[in-house]
């Protein structure tokens, strides 16, 4: 499915229309798994965007329908306490908390799961963090997983566990920069090979 990711306010929704959004986080038995994630997108996301930028919400929509929200994530600034980082990481840092971009909420609608929407949202969050790190200090992207299953998802995406937080994870900006450089080098190599074959 071809999707685009937009800031919530660029979808054509209004504060009142977003409250009627058909968005569910259910399991195979149709039981609500994360009601707080549904409540957030319907009742709090717009408000938090408006009042002083507490959190920014980005949504995944089909290319041809911006009002159909398939998934979303929120981002805001945060800190990671040094004691929550491994000793070998602490040794290379100054003796105070380090800045991080927080993925506060992250959800994909039940009907849009297993289609790569979450992967695209996470990629967008990483790209946002890299852009922000060009202008302000950002040591890592951090997230607090909702449960152990969610934690395993983030671990598979390259996140590392925080020491004193059972469901807290982070991925260093340096890791994201290295991955981006590797991807760009691979793309450049593919372009060169295509030129050689012409």
Task: Produce a short descriptive summary.
This protein is of the alpha+beta class and 198 residues long. Helix content is 35%, strand content 23%. It has a 7-stranded mixed beta sheet with strand order 1-2-3-4-5-7-6, sandwiched between helices.
What is the approximate shape? globular
Output the number of helix runs.
5
List the strand order in the largest sheet.
1-2-3-4-5-7-6
- Derived from helix and strand composition plus strand pairing, the structural class reads alpha+beta
The biggest beta sheet, please?
7 strands, mixed
Beta content: 15-25%
What's the structural blueprint in terms of helices and strands?
Layout: E1 3-7, H1 35-50, E2 56-62, E3 71-80, H2 87-90, E4 98-108, H3 117-133, E5 140-144, H4 148-156, E6 160-161, E7 168-172, H5 173-196
Parallel strand pairs: 4-5
Antiparallel strand pairs: 1-2, 2-3, 3-4, 5-7, 6-7
Structural notes for this entry:
With 198 residues, the protein is of the alpha+beta class. The protein is built from five helices and seven strands. The protein has helices at residues 35-50, 87-90, 117-133, 148-156, 173-196, and strands spanning 3-7, 56-62, 71-80, 98-108, 140-144, 160-161, 168-172. It has a seven-stranded mixed beta sheet, with helices on both faces. It is globular. 27% of the residues are buried. The mean pLDDT is 89.
Keywords:
198 residues, alpha+beta, seven-stranded mixed sheet, 23% strand
């Amino acid at each position: 499915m071809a999707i685009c990711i937009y800031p919530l306010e660029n979808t054509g929704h209004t504060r009142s229309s977003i409250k009627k959004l058909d968005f569910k986080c259910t399991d195979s038995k149709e039981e609500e798994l994360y009601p707080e994630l549904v409540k957030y997108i319907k009742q709090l996301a717009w408000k938090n965007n408006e009042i002083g930028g507490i959190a920014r919400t980005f949504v995944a929509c089909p290319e041809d329908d911006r009002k159909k929200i398939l998934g979303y994530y929120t981002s805001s600034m945060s800190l990671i306490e040094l004691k929550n980082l491994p000793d070998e990481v602490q040794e290379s840092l100054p003796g105070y908390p380090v800045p991080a971009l927080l993925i506060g909420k992250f959800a994909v609608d039940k009907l849009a799961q297993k289609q790569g929407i979450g992967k695209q949202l996470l990629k967008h969050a990483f790209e946002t963090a890299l852009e922000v790190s060009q202008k302000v200090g950002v040591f890592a992207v951090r997230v607090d997983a909702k449960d152990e299953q969610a934690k395993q998802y983030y671990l598979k995406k390259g996140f590392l566990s925080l020491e004193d937080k059972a469901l807290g994870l982070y991925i260093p900006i340096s890791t994201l920069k290295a991955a981006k450089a590797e991807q760009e080098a691979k793309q450049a190599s593919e372009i060169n090979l295509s030129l050689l074959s012409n």
